[in-house]
Amino acid sequence: MTDQPNPDKDLGAQNLPGQRGSHGEEIRVQRGMFGANNGGDTSGYGGLVRSVRLPGPAARPYGGWFDEVADELEGALEEQGLLPSSAIEKTVVDRDELTFHIAREHLVRVARTLRDDPALRFELCTGVSGVHYPGDKGRELHAVYHLRSLTHGRLIRLEVSAPDTDPHVPSLVAVYPTNDWHERETYDFFGLVFDGHPALTRIMMPDDWQGFPQRKDYPLGGIPVEYKGAQIPAPDQRRSYS
C-alpha cells in the first residue's frame, strides 16, 4: 500500500501528455476573477484574461501501473464483447492522476468490471462530484467518480458527461451502494438525473426549490432578506471599487 497515486511513474514533462497549459481543449475564455460584468468585479482582477482548458487525452505509455490498469480494463471489456473504444471515450493523465472518460450508456458495465475483475478490484467508490461547464457544448454536465482499490492500493477516476438538454446518467447505487446519498446531493445541486436510483430526491434544498445552486449559470444575489425588506443585489449590480 502507498499513499502516492503512481509511485513508479516518471514525472518528466515529456511523459505527461495530458498536462494543462497549451494542451487540451479550450472551452471558454474567462475575463476577470469571477466573471462579473459592468464594473461588478471588486476583486482587483477585472483585467485578468485566462483560457480555461480541459486536459487532453494522454498517449501511451502512461507510466507505472497506469498502463496495467488500462490494459486490464480494456481486455476485460473485450472479453464481454464490448469494444473498449466504444466505452472509453478518452484516457487522461493529468497532474499524475488517471481518469477514464466513459460513455454514459456503458458506465455501469465499466464500474462493475473495475470492481469485480481480480486484477483491478476497485472495491470502493468514495462518491460522485458534479461539475458544470457551460462552455463545453453538448457536454455541459459532468459526473466524476473516485474509485479506490483497497486490494492494490490504487486510486483512479471515472468521468461521464451529459448535455444540459438531457441531464441523465445511469445510477451506480447497484454497484456501489455508498453512492446513494452522493447521487442525491449531485442531483440536488447540479440537476444530474441518475436513472435507476432507488429514491432520487433533494436532500439539502427544499423540494420545491427552483434551479440547481452549484451550476455556473445559477443567479447569484438578489435574494430578499427577511428583515427590513432589504435585498442583496446581484453581483453585476454591486458597486465597483476598481
Q: Would you give an account of this structure?
A:
By secondary structure, the protein is α/β, with parallel strands linked by helices. Helix content is about 15%, strand content about 25%. The chain has a five-stranded mixed β-sheet. A two-stranded antiparallel ribbon has the order 1-2. β3 and β4 (about 95-100) form a beta hairpin. The chain is globular and about 65 Å long.
Topology at a glance:
Blueprint: E1 25-31, E2 49-54, H1 65-79, H2 84-87, E3 88-94, E4 97-102, H3 107-116, E5 124-132, E6 141-149, E7 154-162, E8 168-170, H4 179-190, E9 193-195
Parallel strand pairs: 4-7, 8-9
Antiparallel strand pairs: 1-2, 3-4, 5-6, 6-7
Query: Averaged pLDDT, please?
Result: 85
Look at the helices and sheets and give the structural class.
Answer: alpha/beta
Cα-to-Cα separation, first versus last residue: 52 Å
Q: Percent helix among the residues?
A: 10-25%
Please state roughly what percent of the residues sit in beta strands, choosing from under 5%, 5-15%, 15-25%, 25-35%, 35-45% or over 45%: 15-25%
What is the N-to-C succession of helices and strands? Answer: EEHHEEHEEEEHE
Structural Rg:
21 Å
Q: What's the number of extended β-strand segments? A: 9
Count of separate DSSP helical elements: 4
Q: Which runs of at least 5 residues are low in confidence (pLDDT < 50)? A: 11-21
Q: List the strand order in the largest sheet.
A: 3-4-7-6-5
What is the general shape?
A: globular
Main sheet: strands, sense, barrel: 5 strands, mixed
